[in-house]
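User: Quick sanity check before I run a bigger batch. Here is a single chain. Can you write out its predicted 3D structure?
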Amino acid sequence: MTSATERRIYFDHSATTPVAPEVVEAMLPFFTGTFGNASSIHSFGQKAKVALEDARRQVSSLLGAEPSEIVFTSCGTEADNWAIKGAAHFFEGKKKHLITSIVEHHAVLFTCNYLHQHGFDVTYLPVDKFGMVSPASVAEALREDTFLVSIMHANNEVGTVNPIGEIGKVCRERGVLFHTDAVQTVGKLPISVIDMNVDLLSLSGHKFYGPKGVGALFMRRGLQLEKFIHGGHQERDRRAGTENVAGVVGLGKAAELCQTQIEDDERRLAKLSGDLYSKLRQAISGIYLNGHESQRLPGILNLSFDGVSNDSLMQNLDLKGIAVSGGSACNSGMAETSHVLNAMGLPMNLILSAIRFSLGRINCEEDIDYTVSALGEIVERLRTVKRSQAKFGA
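Assistant: Done. Predicted structure follows.
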């Protein structure tokens, strides 16, 4: 759809990030000379095994975990599914209740819906106007037969960060397992699985400058889950299947890079997104911020432009070389409104005019200025067309 333009601006890092050059460089040898199967006992396999364990240490270090607590998966969705289904089947026949929130990623929501269809009880907690889950609501929903609580660390559409440490403390005091989908926060915010009181945490490499097709599940030491994939004895007999060594190496390198520059990234993205918001407010009327003003991911800005449809905004921005999102990339093309914005109680006119800017390392101040100028012209033109249509009854 994008026409020829001198400038290309990518504001959709929450959907996926470009792979860092250092990550590509680290991965390349494992497609060629160091191609061994990490389960093989010969030297080819053992070189791959060493690289696999090095990556495990890199990922665990980013989370403040032990290497043995990291299990590699194919993606964040698999990690979410395994955490929830694995816990459900482990406790099947003993406990049948789990708790989540109404604004979770569909990897969690659809998994919980699946379990509900198979005899489990699911409580879907509401959120406040910012999209935040209250620890008190979690405590109130707990039952004697609750085996798991799954609450996302930060929302992928509006960026609101949940009080995970407090929620985890509530679960820990009641002896209930606690899982958090941290796909949007790992590599972007400082993470400590100890301070967060989590038993299970999901992450995905392509959200923090690693490759697609690889993720991980933090599984607290001593915790037992039902296997999600059966076959060989890989990953300490927890997840079967030949390891994606190149992908795992890339995940590890991306984690290492994030650990060294996470504070600089966080500070820089907070400034850029703050500048984008303030300059847009000065240039365009009828703008509304969706999500929490301060308890939010630094790079996500979800805004509604009253009187303009988000489909028209995204198409016109794309023609200007600017890539944004209407919300979760996983729902692209589906004719439904945002379940997150609905749960937050936004009126329909703001839901239908909301777009998400998610900034990353490749963005700069010039991108902000170009986008503000382009968006100002687009919004004014679209609002003029709408007023004309209303006037003539079109």
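The CA atoms of residues 104 and 152 lie 6 Å apart.

User: Great, the batch can go ahead then.
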